[in-house]
């Protein structure tokens, strides 16, 4: 094949350099910013200006006003968490932006008669842009050249049928070529183009529309409503009933309100997602929408296109079989020239030589051959031998064949078709038996046939004369078997859905040890009713002769049974299914159209990257679900303590510094490490229910036990005659109790234990011990255990609460399984 950059086109040479410069000066440039991520300004705003940061910020300012500073430590924790969130998202932005540039397709634009690949932002008004199968129309325009050009506008109009375009017909940005080729002239560029705004929105970095984040938002909404009456009750209780100094009352009120806000949970989720993007980016995986990481983790069915996914894109011609009795000769062939060649060669050799010439001419007739035709071009590079193509019919995945009207060097002419044998031949044809045997070996077979009708006749594929079988050998991906095995181990069903012959696809899948490959299904025999189709899909694993519309129907049928479906593909025929699937995964070398609709693009074209994406999603969701229990346990016990304090009319047991210390050691620091830990558990639905079923009983036990220890300490120290130190001693006992119970909750959540998890829990316990034994930390946090009776009583209460926690968690696991 020739180098496109060396081909000079004269029919529509495109703009000259001077004309391009003029249009650039006038601003007629396709300057729509295709962003893969939020701007730096948006990232900062999203992390700083939140409802909960506003609440915590106000409370922090209040503490700064009434003092002392150590009671405002929670404010610095928020600042630190916000800074971490901004930093991680900026790193993710950098990764996404760089990968998006790598993955961006460059349309071929004619400048001074020479086709040149250019970034979409360099296209100007009046440019002539070439089109081929899979190319996306990046601007609006008008068709200048058309060679069987069929364009799918379904992403814009909803109409699934491709539209045959002729010179003068309009082209809309956002549509894509499904067959044929041509060129169009740009008539609208930049923000004037029809799909410019849609394209910008489709590629934007998002943190929304996920069950995880929606669930957290729901929880936080209810917490906000609980805070208002709790704050009012605590102020009245501490200021009026107890008669505290107003500064002390305000400090105690803030101490009761701050721990109700699981402010770190939102930021931790953002950080976990952002780190996930960075990790996948290093593996050349472009996540176009962050929820895709979560979505793929929830997938239980993955639909695979054979070509480009299980097999490599390239193919090789392994054999050419001229069919016995093939009527490859015509009256024109009975010329002196052919007779002369037949005298030199054996008849069989002559027939094969003739077929090679036809195949070579067919290969040359398509300027943008697909993988099958490219293999033929490579096998018969010199086969043209004076043949001329008068008209061509590009390959379409819907009709399963291509064709051309050819004129031979000796004056003969004829119409030839190249495509699927079981489509071109009637059932029962003897050649199909031979084809089935080859397909059973995992080989791909194309039929070369002579047509009796003209190429533009709708019935051109009827009554054809079979001439030869072209046997193609597909290259299996070395990593495909291991990836399929991974999905099987993770209880994810793999369905191979291909447009190729079912037996051939089944043989390829069998080589990769896919369960169910021994019973391939011809999709043309599938029922059309959604429920019956879904049942057949559940039973089978390999489906051949699937049309593009059928792929879409199959995805919908699987979804109707509650399956979360991922679809992989790289060809134009996969676009509709990719768009409708829960998660669309495209290969980086795939068509521009597939990359545009997919949420995940594998830039290294490696199917083996998919397990990494699944694992990353499971890590994020599983770990966020795990640590969310820590945050919400704190919310529950904080609400309970506030209610008990108001009802019993006692002093609130804690200052803000105490709960900041507890939150840091039992939630903040360990949650960060646990959120980044490996986690292979498949994501399950009902996030809120799964978290609250443990958080509510844990919080109630922790709050009740802590308040009981506080009341015992009040009674004990009242008799001890400590005077002004009574409240400090009571607070220290209550703090010890709550810390031990919270540490127990952490120990439960950290299971199953590994060395680093045990070390993490032990380090948090050691940190609290350091605070208790270092004099200046004692003073800073206002903690001092007095005597031996009450501290050991606090330990005993915490142990009892820990036993209650263990029993409750086991009961909840049995009674309310996830």
From TrEMBL:
Write the record's keywords in alphabetical order, separated by commas.
Membrane, Translocase, Transmembrane, Transmembrane helix
Give the UniProt subcellular location, in the record's own words.
Cell membrane
- Report if keyword Oxidoreductase is assigned: no
Which InterPro entries does this UniProt record tie to the protein? ATPase_P-typ_cyto_dom_N, ATPase_P-typ_P_site, ATPase_P-typ_TM_dom_sf, ATPase_P-typ_transduc_dom_A_sf, ATPase_P-type_domA, HAD-like_sf, HAD_sf, P_typ_ATPase
Under SUPFAM superfamilies, the record lists: Calcium ATPase, transduction domain A (SSF81653), Calcium ATPase, transmembrane domain M (SSF81665), HAD-like (SSF56784), Metal cation-transporting ATPase, ATP-binding domain N (SSF81660)
Membrane-spanning intervals of the chain: 48-67, 73-90, 222-241, 253-278, 627-652, 658-679, 691-713, 733-751, 758-777, 789-809
Q: Matching Gene3D superfamilies, A to Z?
A: Calcium-transporting ATPase, cytoplasmic domain N (3.40.1110.10), Calcium-transporting ATPase, cytoplasmic transduction domain A (2.70.150.10), Calcium-transporting ATPase, transmembrane domain (1.20.1110.10), HAD superfamily/HAD-like (3.40.50.1000)
Per the record, membrane topology reads: Multi-pass membrane protein
Q: Where is the P-type ATPase A domain?
A: 109-201
Xref: NCBIfam families: ATPase_P-type
User: What is the name attached to this protein's record?
Assistant: HAD-IC family P-type ATPase
């Amino acid at each position: 094949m020739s180098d496109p950059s060396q081909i000079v086109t004269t029919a529509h040479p495109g703009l000259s350099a001077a004309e391009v410069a003029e249009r650039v000066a006038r601003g007629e440039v396709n300057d729509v910013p295709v962003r893969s991520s939020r701007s730096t300004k948006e990232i900062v705003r999203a992390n700083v200006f939140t409802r909960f940061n506003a609440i915590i910020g106000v409370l922090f300012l209040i503490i700064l006003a009434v003092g002392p500073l150590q009671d405002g430590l929670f404010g610095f924790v928020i600042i630190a968490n916000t800074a971490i969130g901004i930093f991680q998202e900026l790193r993710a932005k950098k990764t996404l932006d760089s990968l998006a540039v790598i993955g961006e397709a460059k349309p071929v634009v004619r400048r001074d008669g020479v086709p040149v690949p250019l970034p979409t932002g360099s296209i100007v008004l009046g440019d002539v842009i070439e089109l081929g199968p899979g190319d996306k129309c990046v601007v609006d325009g008008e068709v200048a050249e058309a060679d069987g050009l069929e364009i799918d506008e379904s992403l814009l109009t909803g109409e699934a049928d491709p539209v045959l375009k002729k010179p003068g017909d309009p082209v809309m940005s956002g549509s894509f070529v499904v067959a044929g080729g041509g060129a169009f002239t740009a008539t609208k560029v930049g923000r004037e183009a029809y799909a410019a705004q849609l394209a910008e929105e489709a590629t934007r970095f998002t943190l929304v529309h996920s069950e995880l984040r929606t669930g957290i938002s729901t929880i936080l909404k209810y917490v906000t409503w609980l805070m208002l009456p709790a704050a009012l009750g605590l102020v009245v209780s501490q200021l009026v009933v107890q008669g505290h100094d107003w500064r002390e009352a305000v400090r105690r009120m803030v101490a009761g309100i701050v721990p109700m806000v699981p402010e770190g949970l939102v930021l931790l989720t953002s950080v976990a997602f952002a780190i996930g993007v960075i990790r996948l980016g290093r593996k050349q995986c472009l996540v176009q929408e962050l929820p895709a990481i979560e979505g793929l983790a929830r997938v239980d069915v993955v639909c695979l296109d054979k070509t480009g996914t299980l097999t490599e894109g390239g193919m090789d011609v392994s054999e050419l079989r001229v069919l016995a009795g093939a009527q490859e000769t015509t009256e024109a062939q009975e010329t002196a020239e052919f007779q002369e060649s037949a005298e030199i060669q054996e008849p069989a050799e002559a027939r094969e030589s003739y077929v090679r010439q036809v195949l070579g001419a067919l290969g040359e007739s398509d300027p943008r051959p697909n993988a099958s035709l490219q293999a033929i071009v490579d096998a018969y590079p010199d086969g043209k031998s004076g043949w001329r193509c008068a008209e061509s019919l590009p390959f379409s995945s819907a009709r399963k064949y291509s064709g051309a009207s050819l004129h031979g060097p000796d004056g003969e002419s004829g119409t030839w078709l190249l495509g699927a044998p079981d489509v071109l031949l009637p059932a029962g044809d003897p050649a199909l038996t031979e084809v089935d045997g080859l397909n059973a070996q995992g080989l791909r077979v194309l039929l070369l046939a002579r047509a009796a009708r003209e190429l533009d006749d709708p019935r051109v594929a009827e009554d054809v004369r079979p001439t030869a079988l072209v046997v193609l050998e597909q290259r299996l991906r070395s990593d495909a078997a291991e990836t399929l095995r991974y999905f099987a181990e993770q209880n994810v069903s793999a369905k191979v859905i291909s447009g190729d012959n079912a037996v051939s696809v089944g043989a390829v899948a069998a080589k990769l040890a896919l369960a169910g490959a021994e019973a391939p299904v011809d999709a043309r025999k599938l029922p059309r009713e959604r429920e019956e189709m879904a049942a057949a899909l559940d039973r089978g694993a390999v489906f051949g002769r699937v049309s593009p519309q059928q792929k879409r129907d199959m995805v919908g049928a699987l979804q109707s049974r509650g399956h979360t479906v991922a679809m992989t593909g790289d060809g134009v025929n996969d676009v509709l299914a990719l768009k409708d699937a829960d998660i669309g995964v495209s290969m980086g070398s795939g068509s521009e159209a597939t990359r545009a609709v997919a949420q995940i693009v594998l830039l290294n074209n490696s199917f083996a990257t998919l397990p990494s994406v699944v694992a990353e999603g499971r890590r994020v969701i599983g770990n966020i679900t795990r640590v969310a229990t820590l945050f919400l346990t704190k919310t529950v016990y904080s609400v309970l303590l506030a209610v008990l304090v108001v009802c019993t009319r006692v002093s609130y047991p804690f200052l803000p510094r105490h709960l900041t210390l507890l939150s840091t050691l039992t939630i903040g620091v360990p949650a960060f490490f646990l959120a980044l830990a490996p986690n292979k558990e498949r994501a399950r639905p009902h996030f809120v229910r799964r978290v609250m079923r443990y958080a509510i009983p844990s919080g109630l036990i922790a709050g009740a036990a802590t308040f009981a220890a506080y009341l015992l300490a009040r009674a004990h120290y009242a008799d001890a005659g400590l005077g002004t130190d009574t409240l400090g001693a009571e607070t220290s006992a209550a703090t010890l109790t709550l810390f031990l119970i919270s540490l127990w909750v952490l120990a439960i959540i950290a299971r199953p234990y590994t060395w680093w998890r045990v070390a993490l829990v032990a380090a948090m316990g050691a940190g609290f011990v350091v605070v208790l034994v270092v004099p200046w930390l004692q003073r800073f946090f206002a903690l001092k255990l007095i005597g031996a009776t009450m501290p050991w009583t606090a330990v005993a209460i915490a142990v009892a609460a820990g036993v209650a926690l263990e029993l409750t968690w086991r009961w909840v696991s049995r009674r309310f399984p996830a």
